[in-house]
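Hey team,

Filing this mostly as a record. A colleague (T.K.) asked me to run one chain through the structure pipeline before their review meeting, and I want the input and output archived in the tracker in case anyone asks later how it was produced. No errors, nothing strange. Just documentation.

Input sequence:
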Amino acid sequence: MREAHEKGRSVEATIYTDGTYLARNASWHAEDSPWKARQIERILARNGLTPASVCEVGCGAGDVLKQLSRALPGATFDGYEVSPQAFELCRGREDERVHYHLKDLLAEEACFDCLLCIDVIEHVEDYLGFLKALKPKARHKVFHIPLDISALSVLRGSMLELRRRIGHIHYFTPETALAALRDCGYEIVDSCFTTPFDGLASPTVKSRLARVPRRILFSISPTWTARLTGGCSLLVLAR
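Output structure:
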């Protein structure tokens, strides 16, 4: 399993550690963290979970944990990151309950009440091996998975731009994302769509123009919005 994980991290060992990703994404998407933390808080609350210890794998700039620490005042938080550049962004966010580690979580013996894997698996070469290796690290896991495959994205050929700009090398529909988790031995406790087009700033003119039809279609059918126009992600609570 360890060998599979190292293979899974081979892409991260380049653009995520040599400064390339930081050059393309200077904030490491920290501006999205309050919105992401709210989604995590809601799915935990909806399922009656108040974990005492939370970790995040691939914590990036570390602000998701920092934001979540305000919603869970009794918990401790540990972020694991393999990128030295991202780790430097984390360090200023540490406090007595929030700690960051420039380490590979899978090389550690630690185990937590809840593990967060937020917008990570689409970056990992061997994402199935990675998912299997994460499973024993916590009882409950929260995954946030962008749903990059839609009729519109296929017609526009936009997945290659996602690959170049933000490093996505795997692309999911709601069905394939859930199937991947089940294939890796996870039990799905809860799942829901999230709508970045409603809560986050749009990076391009095209995505801003797509907001209105996406909102209208989502009010009618979230599933068909994901399939036709895209712009959604999937939030999953699993164990």
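Quick notes for T.K.: The radius of gyration is 17 Å. The chain is about 40% helix and 20% strand.
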